[in-house]
Sequence to fold (321 residues):
Amino acid sequence: MKYNKKIFLEYILILLSVLTLCTTLVCKKIADKKSSALDTVFEQLFIASSEQLNLQEENAALKQLLTPYLLFDENLAALFSAWETSMDHFNLHQLHIATLSRNRIIASGFSRLENFSLLMLVIAVILIIYRQGEENVRLQKQLTFHSEHEKIGKNLHDGVSKDIAHAQECLEKGDSENASLAIKRAFNEVSYLIDSMHLQLSTPLTTLMTENLEAFQAHYAVNTSLHITSTKLKTISAETQLEFFYILQEALHLIAHRAEATEVSVKLYDVEDAVVFTIHDNGSNKRVNFAPLRERVTQFGGLLEVFQTAGTTVVIKLSTD
Fold:
């Protein structure tokens, strides 16, 4: 609603700019016609004055055209009074110069007002384009957010379904101990994913990762550590930094379901002109499909490698050039 109000105000600014511009152009045209009419009358007066003709008719026309000027310009009024008294060529010349000067000032004022109207119009259009861009970014983030929640929901469904199915199978075999473990694992999965959904994505990456690892450790009893020494991380866009967080979430989900790990270590550091993001667990090297992670990393221009020695290490390298 706030965004719509801002847009509405900017459209009002455009409307005012257009109205001001149109009014200025109309008034400028009227002033140009009056200036042209004054030039004609002065020309007639100069001719009549030089030929010693009757000046009353031309002077009446001049007075009618100059009346608006005389109301606001004391100097011009004094010059006109001197001309009416003397009716000589010199005073007419002085009056003509003063009138031309006044017309130039008026024309300059109209030009400034015209330029100001155009400037307001341009500013309003730029603001609308800028806010539309902001809205597009906001919608894109919202779409990404919903997409990630859908993935979390899918992970929740798949993981919990397997655990419940395993628990049911164990109960049918009379294996209550493993059934209890499966149910506990399902409960931990639900609790962890619900906590993940409540994280504020607008917070800094370090805070997001710290809170996510703390939730993972609390629900799965797995020791976690986070070490961030990268100075190039700040040069990476906020969208890509958020991708690092989503990758961490997916990796932790895989670890929870296949690794039987007791420790998870996450690091972000610099290597030459690149930021390196590693996620290591000390669990078993079960066969895992890393294709979804690889695809996600490729989309933002990164490179993913997996090493399975003394556990599993996922290494993501992103160039900052």
The chain has a mean pLDDT of 81.
